[in-house]
Amino acid sequence: MKYDFETVVNRSKLGSSKWSKMTAINPNVGPDIVPFSTADMEFKNAPEIIEGLKKYVDEMVFGYTGPTDAYYESVINWMTRHHGFTPKKEWIVTTPGVVPAIKDLIMALSKPGDGVLITPPVYHPFRMSIVSAGRDPVESPLIDCGGTYKIDFEDFEKKVSQPNVKLFVLCSPHNPVGRVWTKEELEKISEICLKHDVFVIDDEIHFDLIMPGYKHVSMATLKPEYFNNCALCTAPSKTFNIAGLQVSNIFIPNDDRRKIFTDYIGMSRLNAIAYKACELAYNNCEEWLSEVIKVIDANRQYVEDFMAEKLPEIKVYRLEGTYLLWFDCRALGLDKDALETFMQQEAQLFMDEGYIFGTGGEGFERIVLACPKKVIADAMDRLYNAVQRLKASRK
């Protein structure tokens, strides 16, 4: 490969949130242990971004900075090339992150006490944003099919049709279960929401990270009336591991909804380096992305094969999109607290516990696969040895 996906960068002294959390949980963690929780990559950044930013810093005056025509062009061209739609410049609202945008969209487009629908187990900041906004979280849980998930459309429409439900937060691809929704599923979601006048907040932050054999369908490529009932939330942050730069692009084709949103957030400028990093990534890093997907998919295969051979009681769910693998540990016979302690203290595995994702998550774990293969291999060995000790203790 052209790029380095094998070097392990120790981020324990660099302010990484997940590294800091790991050492807070277990101060005696081994020196070679890498955390697998928060969804960012354990890879060095693409050199095209690093070198481009160095040049930019040499030339730039860091006064108040907004998006340039070159920035908009890079975003529009990326969507055209990779996601099959060419957005108008005026649709784009830049925000310092998808999660803050979702919270602001909820605040701007609903009122206290309104219902906001989610499909758990799902990315936990959705519920946090709904609750902190003073809105009512309404759940339509996914159906666990034993290796994958599907939407319960009968229940989904029942919940959408409730008079207090005004918004639906869609996770596409779905985090943590790894589903890439089909065009038919997205059309059905869109039709139901349009029928009942429920606006869709569509989080597509993982839309570039699709595994071989699957295809992401953006809501922007559906019927115009469906997209017009949607705020499409995107970012280069997951794709190129630049979440710390806080740059997101929210596409809102509906003029009235967009004005309500922009009036609510007021003057929203990103930092100058964020704009440039996004531009550099979208213009120069397609080859890096192509390679990183191959590495993630190889890690997926490694974990699947390892579990099937050595830990068949742990069921790995099919990864279609994202770099977040979801697996079922319920056969270990541990409650959620005991499972968390077992993983962190016995296996020295620091993942996101399934219960944080809400209904249907208890007993599961979510592990980040965007890391060097040797990190994954070491983690699987630790898990295997810990499970053997657990089994021996029960004899």
Number of domains: 2
Percent helix among the residues?
A: 40-55%
What general form does the structure show?
A: globular
End-to-end CA span: 47 Å
Mean pLDDT: 97
Cα-atom radius of gyration: 21 Å
How do the SSEs run, as a string of H and E?
HHHEHEHEEEHEHEHEHEHHHEEHEEH
Spans of 5+ residues with little confidence (pLDDT < 50)?
none
- What is the CATH topology assignment of the largest domain? Aspartate Aminotransferase, domain 2
What does this structure look like?
This protein is α/β, with parallel strands linked by helices. The protein has two domains: 17-47 and 287-386, Aspartate Aminotransferase, domain 1 (Alpha-Beta Complex); 62-284, Aspartate Aminotransferase, domain 2 (3-Layer(aba) Sandwich), CATH 3.40.640.10. It is 42% helix and 13% strand. It has helices spanning 17-25, 47-59, 69-83, 98-109, 125-132, 153-160, 183-195, 224-227, 237-240, 255-265, 272-284, 286-310, 336-346, 373-393, and strands at residues 92-95, 115-118, 136-139, 143-144, 149-150, 165-171, 199-203, 230-234, 248-251, 315-316, 324-328, 352-353, 364-368. Strands 1-9-8-7-6-2-3 form a seven-stranded mixed beta sheet, with helices on both faces. A four-stranded antiparallel beta sheet has the order 10-11-13-12, with helices on one face. It is globular. The N and C termini lie far apart (47 Å).
